[in-house]
Amino acid sequence: MLFLSNKAVFKPPKAIRGGIPICFPQFGGFGPLSQHGFCRNSDFELVDGGSTSVTLSMRTTEEQLKLFPHRFELRVTISIGDEELEQTLEARNSGDEPFELTAALHTYIAVSSIEKAHVVGLKGVEYMDSLQDKKRLTEQGDSITFSEELDRIYLSTPDTLEVVDEGKKRAIQIEKEGFPDAVVWNPWIKKAAGMADFGDDEYKEMVCLEPAVAGSGPVALQPGKTWRAKQTLSVRQF
Ligand SMILES: O=P(O)(O)OC[C@H]1O[C@H](O)[C@H](O)[C@@H](O)[C@@H]1O
């Protein structure tokens, strides 16, 4: 269900090219940090685990506080059921001041081949085109197909979205909660060739569909409060 590049680098500080990197406390360039924030490159410790679920936690380090002067703890719980994978983020502001966050679950969905994949659920939704200086446009199509680089932040979207794969005769469904936005990304040929941790042809095998807090504005988190958001992935055969 999830794509992982054959060239992925499993060595910090490089983020893993595949799976579901956690973009936090910043998505993309929406803030002062480097792309997608530092949590995707951070060490997490095991808080709790069973045969089908695990909870991991990270707390801001002194080094990170120099870049982002707001203490927080981020917990990630992943549960695997017979038919679904659930991933929950819980971020607690453990400092004395409120702070603003943006975020995404950068979900790399594996597809049989990109020309047989499309994303549904976004017709009529406004988006920012990241390839045109975040120009705001409205999605006209019943589904989004891929024939060139595509990088868009859909704003305040419906909570159920799908990557339909006509090749595998299945749809990967994403049900999101607490993430208003959704990012759709495929790097296509030129960008793929420029990424050292991604095979030249691997753009044919993946689509990123990323529940996000991004273009529709940051979340303000008060001291002592916890922000929660979640995605559930499931497969529908047809
Ligand atoms: O290369 P990375 O930092 O992992 O980012 C990979 C991609 O992530 C998101 O999908 C952004 O919308 C893209 O603009 C970015 O290229």
- The CATH class: Mainly Beta
Q: Segments where pLDDT lies below 50 for 5+ residues? A: none
Structural class: mainly beta
Percent of residues in beta strands? 35-45%
CATH architecture assignment name: Distorted Sandwich
**Domains counted in the coordinates: how many?**
1
> In what order do the strands lie side by side in the largest sheet?
2-3-4-5-19-15-14-9-12
Chain oligomer state:
single chain
The major sheet is characterized as:
9 strands, antiparallel
Listing every helix as H and every strand as E from the N terminus to the C terminus, the arrangement reads EEEHEEEEEEEEEEEEEHEEE
Count of beta strands? 19
CATH topology: Beta-galactosidase, Chain A, domain 5
Q: Return Rg in Å.
A: 17 Å
Describe the overall structure.
The protein has helices at residues 62-67, 188-194, and strands at residues 22-23, 45-49, 53-59, 72-80, 84-93, 99-101, 103-105, 108-110, 117-120, 126-129, 135-138, 143-144, 150-154, 160-165, 170-177, 181-186, 206-213, 219-221, 226-237. The chain is built from two helices and 19 strands. The longest helix has 7 residues, at 188-194. It has one domain: Beta-galactosidase, Chain A, domain 5 (Distorted Sandwich), CATH 2.70.98.10. A hairpin with a 3-residue loop joins β2 and β3. The strands form three sheets. It has a nine-stranded antiparallel β-sheet with strand order 2-3-4-5-19-15-14-9-12, with no helix packed on it. The chain is mainly β. The mean pLDDT is 97. The two termini are 15 Å apart. The chain binds 6-O-phosphono-alpha-D-glucopyranose (G6P). 6-O-phosphono-alpha-D-glucopyranose is lined by residues 15, 28, 35-36, 130, 151, 183, 185, 208, 210.
